[in-house]
Structure formats: C-alpha cells, structure tokens
Amino acid sequence: MTGGGRSTVDGMLRRSARRTPDAVAVRYGERSWTYAQLDDAVSRAARVLRDEGLEPGDRVASYGHNSDAYLIGFLACARAGLIHVPVNHNLSGEDLAYIVGQSGSTLVLTDAAVADRLPQGIRTLALHDADSSLLARLRTTEPFDGPEARPEDLVQLLYTSGTTARPKGAMMTHRALVHEYLSAIHALDLRSDDRPVHSLPLYHSAQMHVFLVPYLAIGARNTILDAPDAVRIFDLVEAGEADSLFAPPTVWIGLSRHPEFADRDLSGLRKAYYGASIMPVPVLERLVGRLPRLAFYNCFGQSEIGPLATVLGPDEHAGRMDSCGRPVLFVEAKVVDDAGKDVEDGTPGEVVYRSPQLCEGYWDKPEEAEEAFRDGWFHSGDLAVRDAEGYFTVVDRVKDVINSGGVLVASREVEDALYGHPGVAETAVVGLPDERWIEAVTAVVVPKGEVTEAELVAHARERLAHFKAPKRILFVDELPRNASGKILKRELRDRFAGE
Length: 499
Description:
With 499 residues, the protein is of the alpha/beta class. Helices cover 30% and strands 25% of the residues. The protein contains 15 helices and 25 strands. It has helices at 9-19, 35-51, 68-80, 93-103, 112-115, 134-137, 174-187, 205-218, 230-238, 249-256, 281-290, 366-372, 411-419, 453-463, 489-496; strands at residues 24-28, 31-34, 59-63, 83-86, 107-110, 124-126, 154-159, 169-173, 196-198, 222-224, 244-247, 271-275, 295-301, 308-312, 326-327, 332-336, 349-354, 373-374, 377-386, 392-397, 402-404, 407-409, 424-434, 438-447, 472-475. It has a 9-stranded mixed sheet with strand order 2-1-10-9-11-12-13-14-15. Strands 16, 17, 18, 19 and 20 form a 5-stranded antiparallel sheet that branches. α1 (9-19) packs antiparallel against α2 (35-51), α1 (9-19) runs parallel beside α8 and α2 (35-51) crosses α3 (68-80). It is globular and about 70 Å long. The N and C termini lie far apart (63 Å).
C-alpha cells in the first residue's frame, strides 16, 4: 500500500490516525476506539471482506442499525476498493429486495435483528454480536495490504429517498465525497474539539457524510447512538459529552416537546444542525426562544451531491429563517426556468448545480441520469428563489407544486401558515384531483388536542390569499415518512386521491 496519500474516503481516516493516534475517535455503547485502533480495525475488516472472495468494484450492501461496526464496514469497503450500498433498516419485502437486487450486491453486512427480512439466497455477514461477525474476525485477521483505491473509483451507491419514484442509486466516487467532506467542515464550522453525537441512521447520507466522516477527518471525538433518544441526548449534554447535534425537523420537534426539554440544563449544547426536510418557521422560533445561545445551521441538499449543497449559518438566520442559505465551498448553484434559462433574482425556478461533489449518474439507469444531467448542470427538482445576496429559499419540490385553478401554489407556504395554529402538531399539504380546481389544495394534519376543519381553514384564510387556503383538511394519526424524515407526499396523494 502506498500509505494513504490519495484523496480517498478511508485515506482521511488514515491521516487522522497519524496525527492523533491516541485520541478517542468513536464511542458506541461500552466500546471505544482511538484513531489508531479504528484505522487498524478498518484495515483488518477490509481484509475480511476480500477474504470473502470480493473483488474491487463489487457491491456490498449494509443493512443494519447504528453501531461502530456499521461505520467500520463502510470504511473497510472504501479501503478494499468495494462499493458500499447503505440500505434503510426499516425496509422489508419488495422495497428491500429491489435495492439489494438493483445494486447487484453480492454480500450484505447485517444485524441479527433484521437479517431474516433479507431475500432468500443472499450471502450475509453479521456486523457484530456473533462469533463469526465482522468485528469478531478482526482479532484473527491480518491488515489489508492491497492497492489503494483511486479518487475516481466508485465508493458508494446512495439511493435517493424515493419520495416521487423508485429509488435511484447515485454513484459516488471517493473524489466526490472528499470534496463534500471539505465543504461540510468549512460551512458548518466543524472543529476537532467539538463533541458531536450521531443519533440519526448512518445509512442516511446526511449523518454519515455531512457529520460523522468529516468529524473523523479533523480528529474529533464522536459518540454514536442507536437512535435519537431524547433522554440519552439530554444526559450526554448535561455531562459535557455532547455539544453538537444534527437532526431533521421531525426529531427537533420531538425533542422540543419532550417533557424534560424545559427543565434539563442544555446550556452545553453549542451547535444545532437541521436539514433533510424543511423546518417550519414557527418550530424554529420556538427552539430559538428556549435556547437563545444555541447556534443553528440549516443544511440543505440531496443524495446526488453527497448530500450538502447549501448552508444557512447561525449569523444568517435573522430575517431569513425560511432560507436554506448559500452554496457551500465546492458547489455552484443557480435558478432556471423550464427551458433551462437563468431567471432573475426573486423569481421562482428550479435549482441546478455544478460541483465536483456530484454523483457520476445513477446505477444502471442511464436514461434517468441523462434527464437529470442536462447542459452541464444537475437538475435538482427543487423549486426555489434566489435573492440579490445569493441566498436560496426553497419553495417546494417541483413535483409538489399544486396547480389550483391554473394558479401555482407552493405547499410550503400553506404548511407554514397552518403550523402557526396551536392545534396543528404536523401537516403536509398536497394537491388532490378536483373537477373544478384541477388540483384542490388539501392539508393532511396530525392534530394536537381538539381542532376542527373549519377552524384551520379560517386560520389559513386569515394569513393567505383565499386561493392558497386549503379546500379540505384531512386528519390523520401520523404522516408517512422515509428514513430521513422526509414526508412521502406521493403516498398521501395516492391514499386520498379517490376521496
């Protein structure tokens, strides 16, 4: 091996191990790894995978819960020249079989708790908690000494969230992810003396690629949790073991409504990152009111760009809480019309990107890749407005804009209005087929306490033009989401289309 000189994902860990070998890199449960120990474990795990008969370019799916072993499995794939395929551990049946099959994965790294959901006949290797697991075999395996991966080699297939269609595997190279890590470190003010806690699923690109691996690259001490358990997070903050947390708005909403949130000493929490879906402005205002000294960062992007594209920093929130910020270090963005022409600032259009962070296309889906990459730009599918200072505000997904009576209505604007009512716990606004309006603006609401449809419609009409106000309110117990917390509006449209 040439010694980690190339810009590769695992090479960043190797350099951290050389700088601070004895510093703690990762803690998970009762296990703790220094940077030297983690780097050695990754090399031995890479050898385990190659001993399984895998060759460079083979796909290895990872289907398990958060753990140190999950992280080691990913980095070991990177070091062994394999292509890692993270899979949502909540998937089962046809959805699970689709990703494993479409990616052509020949081995699945998994947990005992979910292994029985995998398709019959697929080869598996336990990540931990078994005598023959990946972690157990490290003790009797020599470090990998094969050739390094090249920056241009594929290292991961990041499957899109599938909110509008079948998931697509975004083909990420080492070079793309390393650029994204540098963008994250720069834009999010990541420091080696931060104490981040990683509680969101590691199969999701935001937790892994915006926070965990960038923090490993700069030598921070990382704590991995199984899930975003509010009491555990509060305990870590109070003990001085955590001062930085990333979570989607749904989790921040849950934390802010936890019975202990108002009484615990959370003054040690210094950095709060949110993203993966739009944060309702009223919710952000409540969080700021409770923790006025906490620095909030809005992270925005999508799988195809690694996933970080824009950031709104803590000093930029005043007066623009609905903005997702400006492009990060290695991203160029602009807003275009349907013909791909630049639009004037203040005019809604589709956000398009150019960046070394971008994927190489979609795995075995050349037509979809050709559609997304046009005229040298990646078309995001997000409808946004750019202001004169370069700040972007996402209005909606292009496919979620509602055509009501020939007038386009952004669902987010309606959702923000409804979130201002105390009887709304959560809401998603969609367009449903309507003979008169083409699409009727319809709000699907998870209520908080007693509230009626008439109250919410009246509340919306006081704050919006009448054509934007919901024509109907549908009450549900919960909203369908994917693993990253994004609401699956296509499921709502399918569910209520005939009602």
